Every structure is written in C-alpha cells, then in structure tokens.
Amino acid sequence: MSKLQLYLVNNDPSATVLMSPSGQPLYAIRTRKASTSSSKSSTSTSGSSSPGSQLSLLDTLEQTGTTTIYRLDNLSPSRGQVETEVGIITPHALHKGASAISLCLEGDYHIDIGTQRVQVVEEGKSECLTPVTDSEPDVRALEVHENSWAFVGPDSRKYVWQMFVQSPILVLADSTMMPLARYRRAKLGIVSRSRKASLEIMPEGLAVMDMIVVTFVAFMKYRVPAELHSLQMLANETTRHHSFFSGETVHEAEAEPPVLKAVPAQASS
C-alpha cells in the first residue's frame, strides 16, 4: 500500500478542496464567515495590533466561523457525488464554562480544546490554550502547546500534530513515533518545478484518514502561522533536511508537480 497525496486547490486549508493526483476531489472544506458583530468585537479588543500584523490565537478564534469538512464519495454514475460530513471545527467565545475550539468527528466523537474552563498561558511571546484538569468525564481534551497538539483519537490511540522544519507532521504518540501525515507547502517553481500544497498521508494513516484531515485543518487554522500556508517563493533557497519520514536526505526543490483538474470549492452556506 502506497502513500496518498491530497492536493489543496486553494492554499487556505480552511476553504479548499483536497484532490487526488488524478484530479478527483476527495474532501471539501468550507468555513462559514463569522458574524459582523463578532468581527467588530474582535476588532475593538485587538486595537493595539497594527495593520498587517499577525493575529493572535485569541483574535483568530473571534474572527473565524465554523469550518465543516466533507468526504466526497462517487457511489455510482447515476447517483453522482455524495457528500458525507466527517468533521466540524467550532470556535467558541472565551468565557468560563466553554471550550475554545471543538472538533466533532464522524460518529459524534468530540475533542475539545479547553474543557469546562479556559486557561490562557504565555509561552514566550505566543498565546496558547491549555485544558484544565477537572473536565467532564466524557469529554476528550486536546493538549495544546506552542507548536504541537496531542489528542486521543476514536481508536483510543494518542496522536500528536507538531511542527518539523516548518512543516506540520502527525505522528503516533507512542514509543514508535510513527509518522502518519505531513503538510507540504506550495512552490512557485522559479528555479525548480512548481507544486501545489499537499497533505501527504502515509500508508499507516490511511485507516484514519478522515480524522487526519479534520485535525489537520484545525491545526493549520489555529496553530500554524499564515505565512506557512502560502507559497514558498525564495528562488535561491533549497531546503535540505533529514527526512523524518524516509530517513533520507531530502531536497525540497526536487519535488514533482501534481497533475490537477481545477474544481472550485462550493460556496459556504
């Protein structure tokens, strides 16, 4: 069984379509815009931020709406494409008794960031949300650190999304630290071949692909700086590093470009 590349039609992981190398759409991600009142409120509370400055996690929570992830299945030529909702990412107001972010996977499996009460702590210059210990019995709390998210999946195994050489990767949080997925940024191809941004899923991750896609979108939306979503444009910079996935030295500029059919994402409701 080989790994699977899911290519992003748009570089924004919260509003895109994930496609196979042959151009078949496999997932649709749609984000509903936040209400006008919420936007105004967040603007007034972050007045000290200068134009163009990066939003903090707390500002981002206030200015973004609910994101829904759909799996796109082609059942038959007569029935066409069927959408199955596999995840919902919901930001909440930061007040006592509420979660900051909720992930709801297919089968009503919930993962909350910050349960019962939200405690805001500082790590260096960054803000993060940590779950308190006295959460409700049936709520799975996601452990949040500056550059990683640890959570327990529907299969009762623990996973970690973390940054590795400016790229998000998902690994099993056990003695094996088995890599399951990674994100690769788009490249313009000034001195090398261009490529679309993609989510690469290892063979070991295919059985939990829906969970990987939903948690990937949430991690990219709330923990990864926006500039790392965009194109890698430095013409003279070829990233050379030891691959966590293959044990071999990787030259990022040598990556093959994907073959895609342009399919626009549907308008959010």
TrEMBL record:
Low complexity compositional bias, start-end: 35-56
Domain DUF6593: 11-221
Superkingdom per UniProt: Eukaryota
Region feature (Disordered): 31-56
Pfam families found in the cross-reference section: DUF6593
Record InterPro entries: DUF6593
Protein name as it appears in the record: DUF6593 domain-containing protein
